[in-house]
Amino acid sequence: MSEYPSKIKTRKYFIAAILLFIVQMLLGLVMSVMFLARDSSTNLPLTFDILKALHLNLMVLWLLLGFIGGLYYLLPVEAGRDILHPHLIDIQFWFLLLIGIGIIFSEIFFTGRNWWLVEGREYLEAGRLWDILLTVGLLSVVYNVLATILESKNKLSSPILVLAAGAIGSILMYVPGEIWFDSIVAAEYFRWWVVHYWVEASFELIAAGVIALILLAMTQVRREIIEKYLAIEVALILLTGIIGQGHHYYWIGTPDFWIFLGGLFSALEPVPLFLMVWSAYIDLKENKKPIPNKVVLYMIIGATIGNFVGAGLWGFIHTLPQINFFTHGTQITSSHAHFATPGTYLLLVIGIAYLAIPEISGRWNFSQYRGKIGFWLLVIGFMNMIIALLIAGIIQVYQQRVEGLSFMSVQNTLLPYFEWRLIGGLIAFAGGLLIAYDLILISIIKVNST
Ligand code: HEM
Ligand SMILES: [Fe+2]
Fold it and tell me: 153 falls in which pLDDT band (50, 70, 90)?
């Protein structure tokens, strides 16, 4: 079917990613109910802290699977050759999935008991054993990608280099989180290397590269235009994102100069994200060719806008130290997190899945209405959550940090907003289910055509 047979191996990455996303959402819904029930004696087998860890780690897992699947899917066309070691694509998938299952089981049964299995710090809950295995698995992906690029007949294109740099950066930035420190300040200092340098540097590079490659694959926009914007975006992402790290260093015991550096550079972070919206706009305007796969288009435009508004603007509102002094660690953070992460990376992963799965399954003219409805349900659901959490956050900041009311009495006032958040979550969940169903349907009712 395709001149690059290994593409078919990436299908399982996308299907696994979307299914894990569904589980992540389900756990989020359970937590939202717990927020309302407020009774720790609910007979659920999992406590809130474990659910929260699972919610975050499942996200990391499906993101990695989605990105790796995307990398393997997009690379051959750019490199002008198939992946050098196709069998590694399968082995790596099962290896990473097993590690993921190991992490999940460890969190359910060993939280607080064995730090080889569960380490405990937020986002870095996976224990040392899993850290090491994960690094090995990811390094082997980098090897396969670099080996393919080096054997490539084509001149290396900048989107693929940006994508590869993002992938390598993500792995390198995982390592600082594995070093052990007795000082909690040092431990937090390096924990943020993983979280911030992932979402605001290396993953952003992956996003910029993937958006450029998808536009190249789907449109007839001139390559020079796409590559010109990409170069400026990348320079700005690195300039603002690297020192923008300072917005996590205001209140954790690091030197005072971070207040100035973090404030200044992170306030500039929306600039490259705006440039991504702008360049996508210019690219699509210049395009002469009709785009038949509208679902991918929805997801890519959604991701560019979600990135600019959710990461850029929602990040900007609380990134200055004068404001963050009041908003730090409140529902405002949660509002931003639920805008930036799904708004950027979820839509991107679903977008690549909708590009890849119909092609792999030979179903070019799949029916698009489920994908479109799924997209809008996700948007409406998440927007409801985001606005509910934003209002809850503003009330919380005012009552708790300005008026000085106690944490718990403020939580009482926030209950209606947590109900609203649950409704938004249910709508988004319906969208996720529809998309998962659709993608599975497209991939199983395949190929009588080719
Ligand atoms: C797609 C890119 C982004 C993603 C996925 C993202 C995601 C997140 C997440 C998950 C957190 C919560 C961390 C925690 O649990 O404490 C967070 C915190 C934060 N983000 Fe972002 N973010 C992105 C971009 C940005 C940008 C561009 C800015 C600034 C303009 C920003 C500003 C902040 C700030 C200031 C915090 C700390 C809030 C606090 O704890 O007081 N973020 N982000
Ligand atoms: Fe950050």
Answer: confident
pLDDT in tens, 214-229: 999 899 999 999 999 9
Question: In 38-127, which ranges are continuous DSSP H helix?
Answer: 48-79, 86-110
The Cα 276–Cα 38 span in angstroms is: 42
Categorize the per-residue pLDDT at 449 as very low, low, confident or very high, splitting at 50, 70 and 90. Answer: very low
CB 348 within 8 A of CB 207: yes
For residue 249, the tally of other CB atoms under 10 A from its CB is 22
25: left (phi over 0), alpha (psi -120 to 50) or beta: alpha
Span 239-282, pLDDT tens digits? 999 999 999 999 999 999 999 999 999 999 999 999 999 999 99
341 Cβ below 6 A of ligand 1: yes
Check if 202 has its Cβ closer than 6 Å to any atom of ligand 1. no
| Alpha carbons 45 and 253: distance in angstroms, whole number | 37
- Collapsing DSSP to helix, strand or coil, 126 comes out as strand
Q: Which amino acid is at 222?
A: R
How far is Cα 203 from Cα 39, in angstroms, rounded to an integer? 38
Query: Residue of the nearest CA to atom 11 in ligand 1?
Result: 337
Q: Computed from CA positions of residues 173, 178, 180, 186, in that sequence, does the dihedral angle turn out positive or negative?
A: positive
Cα-to-centroid distance, 89 and ligand 1 (Å): 32
Q: For ligand 1, is residue 192 a contact (CB within 6 Å)?
A: no
Cβ pair 229, 275 in contact under 8 A: yes
Distance CA 159, CA 173 (A): 21
Q: Are 195 and 123 in contact (CB under 8 A)?
A: yes
Provide the pLDDT for residue 402.
96
Ligand 1 neighbour 208 (Cβ under 6 A): no
- With residue 175 as reference, give the H or E element that holds it: none
The CA-CA-CA angle for residues 388, 392, 397, to 5°, reads: 150
Residue 421 near residue 32, CB atoms below 8 Å: yes
For residue 126, report the phi and psi dihedrals to the nearest 5 degrees.
Answer: -55, 135
Beta bridge partners of 118: 126
Residue 2: band (very low, low, confident or very high) from pLDDT cuts 50, 70, 90: low
Q: Encode pLDDT of 79-111 as tens digits.
A: 999 999 999 999 999 999 999 999 999 999 998
Cβ pair 117, 129 in contact under 8 A: yes
- Atom of ligand 1 at shortest distance to CA of 247? 35
Question: What's the token pair of residue 141?
Answer: 């992906």
